[in-house]
Design goal:
alpha/beta, Rossmann fold, eleven-stranded mixed sheet, 16 helices, 20 strands, 35% helix
Length: 464
C-alpha cells in the first residue's frame, strides 16, 4: 500500500514546463497519464494524505533531466537501458536512455491502427488462434469456424524486423542487460523476447531481461523504495542521497535478490461457471502448474475447483505475499475495467479489474507479486500511455510486479515455464523477477523451440 501512496503523490504533483517541443512531451504525458488514472474511477482523495518529501516531479523538464534522475537512481554496474515511448498527434516519440545519457531521440509517424495491425499479424504468424482454439473460451451460441486457408499469409522474419525497427533504439546492444520499457499505446503487449537486435541473430531474451514499466513515475518511485530499503537515504534538492550523503550509485553494487514463497495464495482451475457468456474448457495443466509451485512454498492457501470463489480469494488476499492465478482470463478492449476478468467459481465468478481496484480503495494491502497465468491478462484497452486492464489494476493497488500473458497460452508449455520460474525465483539473481523469468524462458525454449510457447509472459511493474 505504501508503494501506491508514493506513486499517487508523485502523479498529483503539477509539473511546470516551458513551452518548447521537448518539454511539451512531458507536460502532455502527465495529462495523458492522469487522464488514464481518473478514467479508472480512482477517487481524487485516494492516497493523497501521504507526503513523499524530497523528489519533486516539477524538476522533469527535458529528456536530459530524466537522464539525470536515472543517474541518481542507477549505477553503471546495473547495465540498464530505458526506452520511453510517447504518442501524440500521429507521432510516436522513442527516446533511449542510459543513466545520465540521452542516446537517441527518434520520431516515428505511425497510427494506433498500424500498431494494432502489426500485433495482430504477429499473432497470426505464430498461428496462435489456430493452435489455442481447443483451450480458449468460446462465446456461447457461436459456431467455431475452421481457421485455415483464408488466413492472411505473414512472413515472420520480415514482420519481426519491421516491429524491431519500431520498438528498439538503434543504440541498443549487448551492454544493456536489463531493458526497461515505458510504453505507449499497445507497445507493452508486444513480445520483446523475440526481437533480434544482435549481430549474431540471437533473440533479445537470450542476452537481456526486460520489464514493462507502467509509467515514468512508477519507475522513479519503485527504484526509490528499493534504494531506501537497501542503502537508506532520501531525495534532497532533486537528487537521491544515500545514508552517507553521496549521490554516486556506483558506490553500491546492485544486490542479488530472490523471492521465496513464504505465504502464497494459489488459485487453480476453478469449477468454471455455466451462467457466463463464455464456455471455458477445463485446464488440466493448471493443476499440474500449481502442484509444481506448491512444493516450494513454506505455508500456502490453495483454492481449486468449487472452492475457488471470489469470497475465498478475498479472505486470504491480505495474508499472501504472492497470489498465483492459474485459470482462464478475458480481456476486453472496450470497457476493460468492468469486462476484463479472471474466471473463478460460484455465482459471482468474475474477478474484474474493478473488483481489484475496489480492494485498493478500501485500503486492502496487496501482495508483492501476482502471477496471472491465464490467457491475455496483459491485454486490455490501448490508450496513449499504454494498456489499461487487469494487470494495471494490481499495480495501482500496490503490487510491485505482475507476471502477465500476452496471448492464449499453451497448457503444457506454460506449466513447464512457470515451474522453472518458481525454481529460479529461489536463487538470488539481479533484476528480480525479470531475470528469473528470462532464465525460465530460456529453459522452456530448449524444450519448446517455437516462440509461441515461450514468448507469451512478461513482467509488468519494476524489477529490483
Amino acid at each position: 500500500m505504501k508503494y501506491i501512496l508514493l506513486f499517487l503523490i508523485l502523479i498529483s504533483s503539477h509539473l511546470v514546463f516551458a513551452q518548447t517541443a521537448e518539454k511539451d512531451v512531458f507536460e502532455i504525458y502527465e495529462r495523458q497519464y492522469n487522464g488514464m488514472i481518473k478514467s479508472r474511477g480512482m477517487p481524487d482523495s485516494f492516497g493523497f494524505t501521504q507526503v513523499i518529501g524530497g523528489f519533486n516531479t516539477a524538476g522533469l523538464k527535458s529528456n536530459k533531466d530524466f537522464a539525470n534522475v536515472l543517474k541518481n537512481l542507477y549505477g553503471d554496474k546495473e547495465k540498464i537501458g530505458v526506452v520511453f515511448f510517447f504518442y501524440n498527434e500521429g507521432i510516436l516519440h522513442r527516446t533511449f536512455f542510459k543513466p545520465g545519457k540521452v542516446l537517441e531521440e527518434k520520431k516515428i509517424k505511425i497510427s494506433p491502427q498500424k500498431l494494432a495491425e502489426l500485433h495482430s499479424d504477429l499473432l497470426m504468424a505464430f498461428k496462435i488462434q489456430a493452435k489455442s482454439a481447443s483451450r480458449s473460451p468460446i462465446k456461447r451460441g457461436v459456431v467455431v469456424k475452421n481457421i485455415g486457408s483464408n488466413v492472411k499469409k505473414v512472413n515472420l522474419e520480415v514482420l519481426t524486423k519491421e516491429i524491431g525497427n519500431i520498438l528498439l533504439p538503434t543504440g541498443f546492444d549487448e551492454t544493456v542487460k536489463q531493458l526497461i520499457v515505458i510504453p505507449a499505446l499497445n507497445i507493452g503487449t508486444f513480445p520483446f523476447h523475440i526481437l533480434k537486435p544482435y549481430n549474431d541473430n540471437s533473440y533479445l531474451i537470450d542476452k537481456c531481461s526486460f520489464t514493462i514499466s507502467p509509467g515514468i513515475v512508477d519507475l522513479i518511485v519503485s527504484k526509490t523504495v528499493t534504494l531506501r530499503e537497501t542503502i537508506g537515504g532520501e531525495w534532497q534538492n532533486g537528487k537521491y542521497l544515500d545514508q552517507d550523503g553521496y549521490t554516486d550509485r556506483n558506490r553500491h553494487l546492485p544486490e542479488k535478490r530472490r523471492f521465496t514463497l513464504d505465504n502464497p495464495l494459489f488459485i487453480s482451475n476453478p469449477a468454471y461457471p455455466k451462467n457466463l457468456e463464455y464456455k471455458f474448457p477445463n485446464l488440466p495443466g493448471a493443476a499440474k502448474e500449481i502442484a509444481g509451485a506448491i512444493s516450494y512454498a513454506k505455508n500456502y492457501y490453495l483454492l481449486s475447483g468449487k472452492n475457488a470463489t471470489k469470497d475465498s480469494v478475498f479472505k486470504y488476499w491480505e495474508e499472501a505475499d504472492l497470489i498465483y492465478f492459474a485459470t482462464h482470463g478475458i480481456a476486453d478492449e472496450t470497457n476493460p475495467i468492468e469486462n476484463s476478468y479472471l474466471v473463478l467459481s460460484g455465482d459471482d465468478a468474475k474477478l474484474t479489474a474493478r473488483d481489484v481496484m475496489n480492494l485498493a480503495v478500501k485500503g486492502k494491502s496487496f501482495p508483492e507479486m501476482v502471477i496471472l497465468s491465464a490467457c491475455q491478462t496483459g491485454l486490455g484497452k490501448s490508450v496513449d500511455v499504454g494498456v489499461t486492464g487487469l494487470a494495471r489494476s494490481f499495480i495501482l493497488g500496490g503490487t510491485k510486479q505482475v507476471i502477465m500473458s500476452l496471448w492464449n497460452v499453451d497448457d503444457e508449455a506454460t506449466a513447464f515455464l512457470m515451474e522453472r520460474f518458481i525454481i529460479h525465483l529461489q536463487a538470488p539473481n539481479f533484476y528480480l523477477p525479470s531475470e528469473q523469468l528470462r532464465l525460465a524462458i530460456l529453459d522452456t525454449k530448449k524444450k519448446y523451440p517455437n516462440p509461441m510457447y515461450w514468448a507469451s509472459f512478461s513482467v509488468f511493474g519494476a524489477s529490483y
